[in-house]
Structure formats: C-alpha cells, structure tokens
Amino acid sequence: MTKEDFRIVYMGTPDFAVESLRRLVEGGYQVVGVVTMPDKPMGRHGSVLQSSPVKKYALEHGLKVMQPVKLKDEAFLEELAALDAHLQIVVAFRMLPEVVWDMPKLGTFNLHASLLPQYRGAAPINWAVINGEKETGVTTFFLQHEIDTGEIIQQVKTPVSDNDNAGTVHDRLMAIGGDLVVSTVDAIINGTVKTVPQEICVRHDTELKPAPKIFRDTCRMDWRHKNLQQLHDFVRGLSPYPAAWTVFDDGQGKNMEVKIFETRQEPTAHHLPIGSLLTDGKNSLKVAVNGGFLHVLSLQLAGKKQMDIKDFLRGRTVGEKASFC
Question: Which pLDDT score is estimated for 257?
Fold first, then answer.
C-alpha cells in the first residue's frame, strides 16, 4: 500500500501537535480527518470562541475537522467509523476510550514527549527539566488500556543542557517528534514495525519518574527545602509557562507575587538566612539559598509584563530585610 492510499485520522490540540500534522500533510500522506478539542471560550464574558492551533492548521489545508465534546458520543463514533481509517495518530490530545483507539484496522499510536516508560503523564517536558535530566526524547507507542503504557514503536533521544528550559526543549522535541511520527507511519505502512514492551526498556532498579499535571501550587518556589541546583532546574522546568512563582517581601511592609523565568547559579558558602535578597540596586538581585546564591535574571510582577532584573530594580528600593518567601 502507498502512503496516498493509507487513510489516517489525526488527533491533537496544541502547537506541539501541529508540527507532526504538518509533516504528514506536506509529505503527501492521506489525512482523512482531524479530531481536536472544542473551541475554547475567551474574553471577559466567554463570548469569543478560540480555535485550537491544530484546528486552525487543519482548516487552512482543507482537512475534515471533528470536535466532539464527548468521545463516546454515538454521532461522533459513527462519523469517525465512516472515515474507515487504517491508523489513528494521537499527539497531545486527551485520553481515548477503547471504542475509539481500537477502531482502526492497524490501531492507534501516540507520540509522547519523553523516553517512556519515564515521565508518563500530562507534563513530561516540564518534569524532565525540573528533575535536572541531562537527556530526554520522544516515543511513539501503540495505545492500550493503561495510559502511556503501550508497547514502544520507536524512540529518539536528545540532550538537555543547563541552559535549556521547558520552552526550548518543547520546541526541539516538537521538531524531532514530527520526524518520528512520519518514520513510524512509514514503518507501519511497510509492515516493518517491531514493538518493545516498556517493562524491558529499564533496569529493575531504575526509579520510574511520573509527569503529573501541573497546578498553581506546584509552581511555588520552595526556598527552604531545595538546594541551588534544584531551584535553578525548577525555574527552567516551568519557563516560559506556567512559570515558577514566589512572594516578594520588599522589607518595607509590602508583599507582591512575582513569577521567575530565568536564573543563574552562584555556588558558594554563606551564612545568610534562606530567601534573603542581596542587590546592588541597579543590575543584580540574588537570593540566598542552600548551596549559594540564585541570581534572578527575568521576572514578572502580577498584572505587569515580563522584565529583566535591571527594569525591575529601576525606581524600586529593595530593603535590607527584603526576601523571597
């Protein structure tokens, strides 16, 4: 069978999923349908509906779009079945019921932004960087009942540097993932797929790290219980979104919430209280932490735009008792 005759249904929602869809469309593969989330209400009164990035791309290229509220809705299932797809591909979508993922003749595979079985869950990129991983990657695997546990088809690795953040890793994996999706589809079309159970991909003494959904409370800086490297990695892993945050006490009776986007480490011994701030008043603001000082390079006050530390300090007095808490 040629790729022009091979019928694919694609499922995804955010920007991360657009790249793989683009590779398929531009590669001449037959995408007979695209499933994405319903339009999201925006604005003060929710009167404006915003389409997902995947929907926008699909409509621009004349693809059939489906936006079911419920994936078990009979009308949606009938419409999906009528497409008679050989294969379904899922990239950053939502958990599928068996009636959906078991529908195509050749199954459904998912592109996951980690080296499975590590970092199963909703936020694999964030948690890999938060945990200071030196390597991550993307995995394609066939769906089965338990989420992110199906047999691995292919994987590609990429290094993570100390200068990377979740945003740079996201963009790199998005591009690598697009290549991997096409490679996986070709292997399925050619009948050369040899899957591997996830259980045999790690040693028995290896700790499997999860990647749960990130909430607001997850993002608060823990100055007292994390060391210099851990705090630096925490900021990187949540930058640029949703961003690590803390409370700035200016030492003069005023507290305000700030998001922190970029930091630099200064390993050294000191005897200052954890969370206390040192500044020259113009170019530098650093936080005393376990193992040294964490220089804050970029931040954002509530209701303001992101700014570098020079703009933050301009016209603002940071008292001797100022701290992050």
Answer: 96
- What is the bridge-based pairing of β-strands 108-112 and 87-91? parallel
| Amino acid (one-letter) located at 49 | L
Q: 87-91 and 7-12 as β-strands: parallel, antiparallel, unpaired?
A: parallel
Report the run of H or E that residue 130 belongs to, with start and end. helix 124-130
- The structure tokens 């206390």 sit at 276
What is the total residue count of the chain? 325
Residues of the chain with pLDDT under 50: none
Asked if residue 242 has a cis previous peptide bond (ω within 30° of 0), the answer is yes
- Cα(220)–Cα(161) distance, integer angstroms: 23
What is the model's pLDDT at position 123? 98
Q: What CA–CA distance (Å, rounded) separates 317 from 307?
A: 16
pTM of the predicted model as reported, rounded to 2 decimal places: 0.95
Q: Say if residue 82 is exposed, middle or buried (CB neighbours under 10 Å; 0-12, 13-18, 19+).
A: exposed
Tokens standing for residue 11: 């499922």
- What is residue 205's predicted lDDT score, i.e. its pLDDT? 67
